[in-house]
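Input.
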Amino acid sequence: MDDGLFEVGTRAIWHKGWKAVTEHGPVPIGRGRFDEDRWQLFHTDVDRAEALDLADQHPEKLKDLVDLWLEEAKKYDVLPLNDLSIFEFRALEYVVAVPPTGEYTYYPGTSEVPEASAAQTTNASHKILAEVEFTGDSQGVIVAQGSRFGGFSLFVKDGKLQYVYNFLGIPPEQRIVADAPTSGTHVVGVEFAKERTGEHHEPHGPLRLYVDDEVVAEDEIRTVASRYALCGEGLCIGYDGGDAVSSEYTSRFEFTGGTIVKVVFDVGDDAYIDIEQHLAAAMARD
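Output.
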């Protein structure tokens, strides 16, 4: 079953050069009533553009394909059909409650954390602090979430510590860069302060890149107001799973030449008043 954002419930099947497809009514119009959807029929071996609907000329062929779709749907547990909107599906997601401290701690070597269960960094001020043992050969992703269509990544490449915020895949990438530490254990991270919203309700504000208690680079960025992705592309520690957030590297780009101890997200309301004290407190807690 092929579910579109506003056409959840659209179905299609291809078999031996023939394709049958039906588009379900846009949400919320036509909710249910799948039996009233009109199926189209295309002979794709001779009509690759699917320009000529042959449903009226070959009703028996169409019925065979619709029956075959139903067989496959039963076989692969597609049934029962529903046409909930993507927003209703999201309401059914398991969401982890924000802890009283507003802090989440993540460790390397774990699988992707689904966006609904990860620290919420969209449409909010937040901090990301990573305790990392650096060497002169350190390279790779420290933390990343999202894809080329939107997300963020903190990584080391060619001796530079880089934070990239990809706004909905719209170029250019927002990139804040500084020299990366070359030895010892350091806390590196970012602080974003939401100060205003744009004409499309997207948050704007300063993004500060830190090495220990020092701001090493700063710039204003704009961030997404809702989700990085409708599905998949979770939060990753030590690599960038799936589609790469930044064009600076390819998928995964695992961190090597050093050790990521842990990454702390702070989505609380407190400000970065005493960066050194805050870092010490955050890293002392698991």
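The first strand starts at residue 11 and ends at 15.
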